[in-house]
């Protein structure tokens, strides 16, 4: 090991609380070696032991133990593969995993084996998104998605050979993490003022990358600075700041189910027979999220028209609406036939609802009383029954999964997919017809593709999203 590399690793270990000795002594418990065979290590130990008779022999370890300990922030258990006393040649694990190119073809468990590696790539993806570089954003997110799908931890870069979406940059980041337990580029991004400020601002309800970047360029850095300049803010952003503490706190499944009961009661009161379906991350099996999405429909096509304003008035009469923004349906077959048209056109309300807290949750004592309610972000979306299956698929997410599913449909099947339907771009609606193109084409959809979509959505067990992608519609 060279002098500069030894100095770097020593500094890294000490920064994480490890005690590193410069000379061999009776206090040494572990000796880490790089590019050293078991035979060479044992000979070195015998030579050092001759100078310190009776001294306890330290454990001889390969550099892989050190890098894993750096990643964990504490000494990891010494396994056989780490010990240099084992006189067997170390074999690099080779990738035996067959990985589909499209993220929509890969199941991804909520808990996976490569959290540190995937989070590092997602940090770089997020930074690319803040810079408006969609190509880099997708590259890093797709590589992170592959890591989440692997059946075992990555301990060597050779395990990633032959897997899709691992280019030179992503591979370099992984190699540095495996060798040193940290990546200089990732740490630099995480510590930068711009990245931290952009993360803070984009977490505000109604604030997207463009607005956050403009505020940053104008010298704004904190929420208090925004509150001091309300003239800069839209009504949505003012509501986002007003309820920021609640909205930045994850919503648990129990709260999501309580909100569903409130919305279902309002919908039943307004239109008996209508249904309310919880979507988003909770439908994928997540235990918490940052907002709650509901799809509303009715078995009889057309009955859903005009439903949402009545539901909102009912919720307002109960004092449950803190903020809402209504968007009318703008279904237009011309838009739906565009290849790049991925946003749906359903009627919807973007809301902040007041969720009452159960009595036992509000007992915080006289010195620190707990609130009796909390603000929660809720999206209510109304869809015609004929389009509900595709709306459910689109609103279940994640954004990368949906993007990959659309890419698979287009590139492999020659069909276009969105939250309204799956259709052939070569077959438009009949001249003078108001019928949307996906309605007559649904019977012609290849059964294999629909079967694949059903298997993906209905696969048992919780499924994690490959990775999030910033919403391009937020300004």
Describe the protein in words.
This protein has helices at residues 3-15, 38-51, 63-72, 115-130, 134-149, 168-180, 184-191, 193-202, 209-217, 223-227, 235-242, 244-247, 253-270, 280-283, 307-317, 333-336, 388-396, 399-413, 438-441, 447-458, and strands spanning 30-33, 59-62, 251-252, 275-278, 288-289, 292-297, 321-327, 347-356, 373-382, 416-418, 421-423. By secondary structure, it is α+β, with helices and mostly antiparallel strands. The chain folds into four domains: 3-72, Rossmann fold, CATH 3.40.50.10190; 103-190, DNA polymerase beta, N-terminal domain-like (DNA polymerase, domain 1); 192-242, 5' to 3' exonuclease, C-terminal subdomain (DNA polymerase, domain 1); 251-458, Beta Polymerase, domain 2. A five-stranded mixed β-sheet has the order 4-6-9-8-7, sandwiched between helices. The chain has a two-stranded parallel sheet with strand order 1-2. The longest helix is centred in the middle third of the chain and has 18 residues, at 253-270. The model is unreliable at 86-92, 362-367 and 429-473 (pLDDT under 50).
């Amino acid at each position: 090991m060279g002098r500069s590399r030894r100095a770097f690793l020593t500094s890294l270990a000490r920064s994480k609380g490890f005690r590193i000795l410069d000379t061999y002594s009776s206090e040494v418990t572990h000796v880490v070696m790089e590019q050293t065979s078991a035979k060479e290590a044992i000979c070195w130990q015998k030579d050092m032991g001759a100078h310190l008779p009776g001294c306890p022999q330290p454990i001889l370890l390969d550099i892989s133990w050190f890098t894993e300990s750096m990643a964990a922030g504490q000494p990891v258990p010494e396994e056989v593969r780490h010990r240099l006393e084992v006189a067997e040649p170390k074999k690099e694990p080779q990738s035996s995993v067959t990985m589909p190119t499209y993220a929509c073809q890969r199941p991804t468990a909520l808990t996976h084996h490569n959290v540190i590696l995937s989070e590092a790539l997602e940090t770089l993806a997020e930074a690319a998104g803040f810079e408006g570089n969609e190509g880099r954003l997708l590259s890093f997110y797709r590589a992170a998605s592959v890591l989440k799908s692997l059946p075992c931890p990555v301990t060597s870069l050779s395990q990633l050979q032959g897997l899709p979406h691992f280019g030179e940059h992503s591979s370099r980041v992984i190699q540095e993490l495996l060798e040193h337990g940290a990546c200089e580029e990732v740490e630099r991004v995480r510590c930068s003022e711009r990245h931290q400020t952009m993360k803070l601002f984009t977490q505000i309800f109604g604030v997207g990358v463009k607005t956050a970047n403009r505020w940053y360029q104008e010298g704004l850095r904190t929420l208090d600075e925004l509150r001091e300049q309300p003239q800069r803010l839209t009504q949505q952003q003012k509501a986002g700041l007003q309820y920021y503490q609640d909205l930045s706190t994850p919503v648990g499944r129990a709260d999501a189910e309580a909100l569903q009961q409130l919305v279902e009661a309002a919908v039943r009161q307004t239109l008996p027979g209508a249904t309310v379906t919880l979507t988003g991350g909770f439908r994928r099996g997540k235990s918490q999220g940052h907002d709650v999405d509901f799809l509303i429909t009715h078995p009889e096509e057309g009955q859903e028209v005009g439903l949402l304003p009545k539901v909102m008035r009912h919720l307002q009469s109960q004092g449950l609406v803190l903020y809402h923004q209504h968007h009318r349906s703008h279904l237009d077959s011309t838009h739906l036939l565009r290849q790049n048209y991925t946003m749906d056109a359903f009627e919807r309300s973007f809301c902040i609802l007041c969720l009452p807290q159960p009595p036992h949750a509000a007992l915080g004592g006289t010195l620190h009383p707990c609130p009796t309610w909390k603000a929660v972000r809720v999206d209510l979306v109304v869809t015609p029954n004929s389009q509900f299956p595709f709306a459910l698929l689109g609103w279940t997410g994640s954004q990368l999964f949906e993007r990959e599913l659309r890419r698979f449909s287009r590139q492999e099947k020659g069909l276009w997919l969105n939250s309204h339907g799956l259709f052939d771009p070569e077959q438009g609606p009949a001249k003078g017809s108001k019928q949307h193109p996906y309605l007559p084409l649904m019977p012609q959809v290849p059964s294999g593709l629909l079967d694949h979509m059903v298997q993906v959505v209905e696969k048992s067990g919780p499924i994690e999203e490959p990775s999030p992608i910033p919403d391009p519609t937020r300004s």
